[in-house]
Amino acid sequence: MAATRTLGGYLELARVGNAVAAGVLTFVGAFVAGGLGSVGAVALAVVATVAATGAGNAVNDYFDRDIDAVNRPDRPIPSGRVSARAAAAFAAALFLAAVVAAVSLPPLALAIAVANLSALVAYTQLFKGLPAVGNLVVAYLTGSTFLFGAAAVGPIAPPTWTLFGLAATATFAREVVKDVEDVAGDREEGLRTLPIVVGERAALSLATVVMAAATLASALPVVGGTFGLAYLALVVPADATMLGATVWGFRDPSTAQTWIKRGTFLAAAAFVAGRAATVIA
Ligand SMILES: CC(C)=CCC/C(C)=C/CC/C(C)=C/CC/C(C)=C/COC[C@H](O)COP(=O)(O)O
Ligand SMILES: CC(C)=CCC/C(C)=C/CC/C(C)=C/CC/C(C)=C/COP(=O)(O)OP(=O)(O)O
Ligand SMILES: [Mg+2]
């Protein structure tokens, strides 16, 4: 029983759902770039992404353990399911796994991996407490999965940049809503997040404008001929969910950010369906 509880603690520390989802985005990036012929490179890129995302989540919880004791006492470290020391060792092992997986990829992909791993290590201590900067870093990291997957198999083409932009802008909006949710604990820790600096309503207004722009821009892959009806069938409800949830953030930021996340995962499925349909067609 204790072993299951500890294993669950490590899986939760890595936020394995996010890590696998990030790996899917890297796969889509390679898929959109037409590079599934390079199975080895695609597999290494996906493994590097999953390991890096897990490492970033684990090191974030390690550095956030005091804030989380206020905001999220049920998380693995504050709840005692994983010790801080073990969490740090786990993060280091995942970072090493990401480096080992990325080191034999093409130069541009390796450069993206080095930049991203550095940003993940630095995020919590350097960027998170700066207004909007932490949100922009997480937004870039999430969108960069598409660039990383494409760079693993060849040059990065315009359709991949579109996917990068969509994922980054939607993620930025959700991060702002998450910061509104965490204002209490962040203020206690002296973090200068966007809602603390400009106020919660102004932050939520910015998140709404950014999310509206992202949802409008989600038509670009169809306009550009990258995706067709299979993509639209999923991205339209995803857009409605993400935008509607962002507006709901004025009433209940916690529920809002959870539903934005669900919308982004549906949007990721739209990318997969859109690309798969072009192969089947
Ligand atoms: C308008 C449009 C079509 C946007 C595209 C949205 C899209 C596909 C976004 C990507 C979402 C996704 C599947 C991300 C992978 C998981 C990940 C790395 C998320 C970053 O999470 C950072 C967050 O702070 C973690 O918090 P939590 O999720 O609460 O654990
Ligand atoms: C492509 C490669 C090699 C790497 C990409 C790695 C990815 C996709 C990173 C995505 C973003 C990520 C996992 C960031 C880690 C830090 C993190 C969990 C930020 C959010 O944490 P907080 O701002 O503290 O909020 P919560 O802890 O409450 O979620
Ligand atoms: Mg945190």
Automatic annotation (TrEMBL):
GO terms for molecular function: geranylgeranylglycerol-phosphate geranylgeranyltransferase activity; magnesium ion binding. It is a multi-pass membrane protein. Its main location: membrane. The keyword Transmembrane applies. InterPro entries: DGGGP_synth (IPR023547), Prenyltransferase_related (IPR050475), UbiA_prenyltransferase (IPR000537), UbiA_sf (IPR044878). Gene3D superfamilies: UbiA prenyltransferase. It catalyses: sn-3-O-(geranylgeranyl)glycerol 1-phosphate + (2E,6E,10E)-geranylgeranyl diphosphate = 2,3-bis-O-(geranylgeranyl)-sn-glycerol 1-phosphate + diphosphate. One of its GO terms (cellular component) is plasma membrane. Its EC number is 2.5.1.42. The chain crosses the membrane at residues 20-47, 82-102, 133-154, 202-223, 229-250, 262-280. GO terms for biological process: glycerophospholipid biosynthetic process. It is found in: Cell membrane. Its cofactor is Mg(2+). Pathway: Membrane lipid metabolism; glycerophospholipid metabolism. Keywords: Cell membrane, Lipid biosynthesis, Lipid metabolism, Magnesium, Membrane, Phospholipid biosynthesis, Phospholipid metabolism, Transferase, Transmembrane, Transmembrane helix. It is an enzyme of class 2 (transferase). Prenyltransferase that catalyzes the transfer of the geranylgeranyl moiety of geranylgeranyl diphosphate (GGPP) to the C2 hydroxyl of (S)-3-O-geranylgeranylglyceryl phosphate (GGGP). This reaction is the second ether-bond-formation step in the biosynthesis of archaeal membrane lipids. Belongs to the UbiA prenyltransferase family. DGGGP synthase subfamily. This is Digeranylgeranylglyceryl phosphate synthase. It comes from Halobaculum lipolyticum.
